[in-house]
Amino acid sequence: MRSGARSPPGPVIRWRDGGADGTLAAVNPNPDHAATSEPRYRIRAVHTDATVTVYQAYPPDIGLPAARDAAFPATWKRDRMTWIKPSFLWMMYRCGWGRKRDQGVVLAIEISRSGFEWALRHACLSHHIPGLHGDRAAWREAVRTSPVRVQWDPERDLDLRPLPHRSLQVGLGPEAARRYADEWIVGIRDVTPPAREIHDLMRAGRREEAAALLPEERPLPLPDDAVARIVPPVGRPAHA
Description:
Blueprint: E1 15-17, E2 24-26, E3 44-45, E4 51-58, H1 60-69, E5 82-84, H2 88-95, E6 105-112, H3 113-121, E7 123-125, H4 130-133, H5 136-145, E8 148-156, E9 162-172, H6 174-184, E10 185-190, H7 192-203, H8 207-212, E11 218-219, H9 224-230
Parallel strand pairs: 7-8
Antiparallel strand pairs: 1-2, 3-11, 4-6, 5-9, 6-10, 8-9
């Protein structure tokens, strides 16, 4: 996506404007991430056949122009690792609903599915697993040379409490970050207003209304070679 291009309308997130007053309405209400029968390791995301939506949070000097231009500004650092998250609620845990310092603009970034799969195919897990990496020396070398690092952290519920199943975080090193910024991005939207709306509803005790405004995240099928790079052998789902 070239600088100056506007984000096209698309399925970046399943929210729509409720009316002229700017209120939000759910297109497809999503339950509060039920833990029952959920595999320990599985990516859940807003996705289409061609794209996957990930989240990041930035200070206004980066986040606002990125959403305006559908491209990161020149001040965005391409030469250091940047982390993307397919889980909206994990992003809310990380950025405090867009209220933490230097994380006040929450972005939903729609990227090409081929780009996302490239990242996973070239990833190394951030912790050593003997059944996947062999000895520690081989794993340390893989971490050093891989352009992408991944880790699985506990998924979060609406109260941002940890759940038994995991959520994937994808760390893009310089090579992958350049591909992300220059090749993979399809659209960028500022989703800070709905994020804060959900938080305000939770603080008011209106949990069902808050849950109805969550983006619709569905299990994301992945090629076997991508699964083999990122999912520990024990507990690997039939369809990651």
